[in-house]
Amino acid sequence: MTISLKKLLVLGGMAGLAGVTMAVPALAQEAEEAAETAVTLGVNPETAFVFNTFAFLVSGFLVMFMAAGFSMLESGLVRSKNTAAICLKNITLYSIAGIMYYLIGYDLMYTDVSGYIGSLSLLYNTSADELALLGGDEAALAAVVDNGYSVMSDWFFQMVFVATAASIVSGTVAERIKFWPFMIFVIILTGILYPIQGSWTWGGGWLTEMGFSDYAGSTIVHSVGGWAALVGAIILGPRRGKYNADGSINPMPGANLPLATLGTFILWLGWFGFNGGSVLALGSAAAAAEMAIVYVNTNLAAAAGVTAAVILCQIMFGKVDLSMGLNGAIAGLVSITAGPDLTNHFLALVIGAVGGAIVVFVVPLLDKLHIDDVVGAISVHLVAGVWGTLAVGIFGGGNIVVQFVGIIAIGGFMIVTSAIIWYILKLTMGLRVSEEDEESGLDRAELGMEAYPEFGYGSARS
């Protein structure tokens, strides 16, 4: 009997496409057929359920650790007078993302998706079958196991992805945006904007029907955050003193490059959960083999991104650059995220290297356009994310036209909606801190505390 790869990934009654099976009846039916196949082959459905749930949870906390990576990266790349503020933004946006995704986001993205949007119902809780099992009803075991994974393990894994999208915006608009208007934007981004566009693909919506492919979110996560960051940076304007009237640029180096390096390594580690967990199963040999392939490709792409960025810096500028190397690693990771299941590992090197090269060209281009991106997130997450999504059509067997349509559709949606929200916030609350507060630093102005109080307010803080 011939079994498809997708069915192998859901052996033992595993709905291998995570929460999507609840939104797409056809996939749920396929999961039931796979369960029957698993019984025939003697696979233990409860064992597969445990492994699938375990994979979601472990991958989820690896992705959650990326929040620490973003905090360290951004803290290292801002000036010392803004360090405490950027740390507060990162832990707060992660918290808001989790709350909003529980209140409304997950349902909008995965429940009863009708092509363009899911359910408007509030709250997403443990299934009745799991509650019954926890209450001692052994008869509920079969229904729980048939779902393929614990309901809330899938919610947890999906939630940490939306927090990543919000973190991307934080780094770009750092050092001059007010705390509360930014958090209101995060509420809307994580609760509404991200879930709506996510439903178009991962929720089984219209882009899925067209054949758009984005394995772990080069576009759905990273470009979404990048588009929101780009629009925000344009509307907010550059930091004062960054650009001169004659077009020249005043460097504003980060205060702690070892911290930024640590943050990059943390992100690299977390990305194994980001991409590896997106196999969405670990209950079969096929799923385990695919996860190993994804891990290897993820690591190779990041390494190629670093190497390409460092070599290009030497060729173009006559010197190597640490911040470019760090962003090269992340760009390589973003680039491979749309198609990390490539069985030709050499292609992962190619995709990652192109991502690293993109950073070296796009970062100075944005400066020439006077678009002030403090940490380089637009180059890394937006442009490299677009490249990675197109690479699926070039190397991964996807349709390049469909991939392009998905990029344009999601990009257009994010540009329009983000612009509306940023402008409303600008007109009502104001986005920027005052010139005096920007000069003294957001730590002192908005928090009344400093990350490095022993340095005082002298020249070392500017």
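Second entry:
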Amino acid sequence: MTELNARSPKILVIDDDFANRRVLQLVLTRNGYTASLAGDGCEGLRMAKAVRPDLILLDFFMPGEDGFEVLAQLKADPELRGIPVVIFTVLVREESERQALKMGAAAYVTKPFDISEVITCIRRILPQP
């Protein structure tokens, strides 16, 4: 691990879409972040405990445990509840955004996502690497 990676903020991407995970990993790495990837909610929860990310990017629509369930579990866990969670989803309904924010999400970004919007959102929450 390089000295830069040791200081880089860690971001966990939880999304069932492989292409989204890879694009986000590339973009995050190019912007100075360390990215970890999870393909579903169960894996994401395990990785959150193991990696202790500085921020989580969470897709809402996934097979198995969906993003609402994962967000609820993250916020119920005393060790993980302080990690900011940014929701990214195809769901563009005000009530879903309100519910996510009420549940403790730090932000809500719609898909298809604009890379600059995602990075801007992350930088509002985390210090710039």
